[in-house]
Amino acid sequence: MEPSDAKTRRAVKPVICYPDATLPKPDLALYQSARAGATLVDEITIPPRDARCFNAPAGHFFRISSIEGPQVGDLNLWNADNLAERFYSGKTRALHGTHISTGEQMWMSLPFLRPMATIVNDTLSWYGIDEFGGSVHDVIGTRCDPYTNNLLNGGQYHYCCHSNLTRALAAHTGLSLKDAEPHVHDVLNVFMCTGFTCNTGQYFMKTSLVRPGDFLEFFAEIPLLGALSACPGGDCSSEHSSDTAACHPLRVQVFKPTPTALKGW
To answer: What whole-number distance in Å separates Cα of residue 71 and Cα of residue 192?
Structure first.
């Protein structure tokens, strides 16, 4: 039974858990200046419903691009020298919010808690937050996986992003699938438009607004090993574990700045 002071309790104003005024700010102007003269040193195409790994040395840039059609991707990041140091989506969400864009950072797991990568350019930053509470590039979804798919649908589908990332990491490092799988972690959902419903608080997705030519670009704060999966849901307009959704490749490019471009970093 609802108490008599229910309205008063609901009206209590929220308090931000982690005010960001004292959060160290990356030198975005320096990064963007260095990026302007950087040279392409690596390029990888991620096939639809599959994943690939890539390396981005410290002080390099990497860009994730849509190249053929609307497609979302699931991104994992590790310290290239230590897989135990990996992206911490929960703390990134607590520090920056449910979705991240230019000037915000991907933070490392505890006890390390340092920036791994800084977003330096986002062609979808114009979208903001829509009337449903949806936005782009979320750190709230975990990744599609065969275990949840089996729980909800009773089926075995192994082109989920979790499976794709596991296979990619195993192939890149030489680890067995069994040993690689525990290193796969909650993701940055690149190009995915998501939010929470106001009435039930459920995680929702919308048709991705990404188009060929759109990209999300990062500065590697430490030596990074990345893995990106081209989600089997394509643009995630209806489902995200599917052999029937239209899917497209993604591209990862790595750029090296000139030796003097990052003076003072």
So the answer is: 8
Residues 6+ apart with CB under 8 A from 130: 195
Exposed / middle / buried, residue 127 (Cβ in 10 Å: 0-12, 13-18, 19+): middle
Q: What is the DSSP letter of 182?
A: G
* Residues 233/161, Cβ–Cβ less than 8 Å: no
Q: pLDDT of 128-167, one tens digit each?
A: 999 999 999 999 999 999 999 899 888 888 899 999 999 9
Give the largest CA-CA distance in the chain.
67
Give the gyration radius of the chain's Cα atoms.
Answer: 19
DSSP 3-state assignment of 229? strand
pTM of the model: 0.96
CA distance linking residue 139 with residue 216, whole number of Å = 15
Q: Find out whether the peptide bond into 111 is cis, omega within 30 degrees of 0.
A: yes
